[in-house]
Write a structure and sequence with these properties.
heterodimer, A: mainly alpha, two-stranded antiparallel sheet, B: 0% strand
Amino acid sequence: MSAIIQGFLYVLYPLHFLFLLLGVAGGIIVGALPGLTASVGIILLLPLAYQLDPSTAMVMLCGEFCGAMYGGSISAILIAIPGTPSAAATVLDGYPLAQKGEAGKAIGIATISSAAGGIISTFCLMFIGPRLARLALKFGPEEYFALMIFGLTIIASVSGKSLVKGLISGFFGLLIATIGLDPVTGYARFSFNMPNLMAGFPFLPVLIGLFAISQIFIQLEAVGEKIKHFRQKIRNVLPSFKELKNLATVIIASSFLGTFIGIIPGTGGTIASFLAYSEAKRWSKNPDSFGKGNIIGVAAPEAANNGTTGGAMIPLLSLGIPGDVVTAVMLGILPLIGISPGPLLFKEHPEIINSIFAGMLLANVLILLLGILSVRLFPQVLMTPDAILFPVIFALCFLGAFSLNNSVYDMFIALIFGVIGYIMKKNNFPAAPVVLGVILGPIAEDELGRALIISHGDWTVLFQSPIAIFFYVISIFSLLSSLKRQFSIHPKTK
Amino acid sequence: MDKKEIFLSIVLMVISMTIYILTYQFPQQTVALSPAVFPRFVSTCLFILSVALLIQGIAGVKKDSEQKKVELTLNKIFIIRLLLMIILAFFYTQILPLAGYIIATPPFLAGAMLLFNEKRWFRVMAVSIITTALLYILFRIVFKVFLPRFSLF
């Protein structure tokens, strides 16, 4: 308990709190703007994050994650365009409410549900995270290798429409990871005697290119398109006590559902919000009112998608594997700000963990306050012209790529991967598996190499540990379930 | 038949085969994991998946309406805009070390705004200069990040 209080004292220190506020407010804006996601928001905050100490940087990034997850609901309610994919379910009832002149109430309910979902999931993170990390401390190289294999099967889950294209993206990421020094022998692979290539592709510019710059190119397509505006006056933000009482059960249940979905690697806010929506509709006494402006249809998905924030952080912090796309991006950038996610983080840097717990709880309180107090500003945020927003983002992307190593080469790499990311997006190759391949591939290879060195080259060592076998089994299960889902979504592709 | 998928699958096949062949230049390691093992595994899997993509392309999976809509928007003007944006960004990365951050960034921002169809010159100039100034103050002065400076030599 005293550790958590220390975490709170750290986050409540004015300067640290300012960065948390910046993260949450920035997250809400990024989430609300269609075309920008939580992953892009995190990437845009990076140049700032380098300059901070690891705990403050992490608190800011967590604030951004929670804020963006909530922010998506604003444009979903006001203009029927989900700011983030996880707010897609909120459109179903949020927009009809806005059309009825109850946009204020819809945003109020989304705010309360999001904050509640985030707080409940953070408590779950505080309870489960340290216990899982304690278990993971017993892992040796062979168990870690098996865990990374499980992590890599997430590629199949985040493949989107086409499993083949998703897997190609994942193996493309693994291929990128093989460039540079081999982690076991130190041999420079595919470097062609070029000093820049000996260190491999710098991860951050790859990330900036694939997620942010490619999105700027995509946005160029929208030039000249008419932008939707919201012109009503927003009022009556706070729901009545009776309404809140009626929503309490749905919010709590959806929050736990979201947390559970968040823990499962490869899932995320979109799945959680649609699942929560359908469950709320199934349990409702009046299911026909869903889709026509039922407040439960706003509360359930919003509680669930913010519920995934704490859930997704559990495997990230305890095991070093991502829970969803946003935490995959975080996994890649945490080492750059001086944090190595995994069980040792809990043992060696409890102060960082405590500040993350406190920061996430306070981030959700801030969501509640900012959401209620600044609701009238939201339509203005949505009116930000693309012609200003995206060039400024482009400049920030280049600044972010440059500032890590003070290298123009890194900016060039970001641009190249921006073009690659654009080509991928245009041809329906998802970018998230590339990130997983780039991050998890070298770790898997490193652990495999270590296990083989310890066993003097005996490959059977990989199948001797019950924990490792457990991970292989759930890896197979994960792959099979992705295959099943693929064929059930696209029966014609059989 | 989806020609684009067929083309991409052939490109991927060539890349994976090239990677596999290049691994024969790597030194052999007998005690633990050879540096060639992982790239060979990855390139083999990539090759198999490229074949799957090729078959998918030849079988000509029907495109959904969303894909068709996306392709329709890929008109000539957009392609020109996209190419100009890439060229602008490329020049920015090349000129930045020579001209410095303060001189190179406003034209880059102004160019990008023009490509995003911003026609109000005052707004273009104001945003590009103010953004550059703000970013410079924040990163160079507040956070002491080294930013490229103009130098004749």
